[in-house]
Amino acid sequence: MTYEKHQFHSAPVLIEDLAPVLRLSLRVKPAHRDTLARVLGLDLPVRVGARSAAAGTEALCLGPDEWLLTAPEGTDLTTPARAVHADAPHSLVDISDREITLRLTGPAVLDLLSACCPRNVAAMPVGAAARTVFDSATVILWRDGIDSFRMDVWRSFAPHVRSLLAQVQGEIAAGL
């Protein structure tokens, strides 16, 4: 797979592609959550939208029994999870190639996101994340700072999302 570097920049918002990461979808019943958390080496938050991180791996709670795990490429989370499968049945699926991640930063990032996202992104606390939509594309927004977000978007929707981001970015830069 080739990695293309896309970067759109105007003063109010910088949009850039981030390097690929390991991305896993985890489904496990609440009764077995602690077992998986222990072998994976990080907390699996119970509140939807809550995140945790340890040793470069992040966990985002997407539902009562669903988490998105991200880690640097080459990280092995499947071996320890497989070792406890008999005692803690779960589904752990590699979805790394399904999505790309964009970093959106700058003083007008909330305006940029609000143009196509129905969620009140300004109300998202730093450190939270949420599954939402951007126009018609399902995305995951990670709020990393006051004016810093990551957006995970399915590869098939990336051209559409990039086009919208560039259009809104141009409108913001023009003062519209």
Automatic annotation (TrEMBL):
It comes from the Bacteria. Gene3D superfamilies: Heterotetrameric sarcosine oxidase, Probable tRNA modification gtpase trme, domain 1. It holds the Pfam family SoxG. This is Sarcosine oxidase subunit gamma. It comes from Paracoccus sediminis.
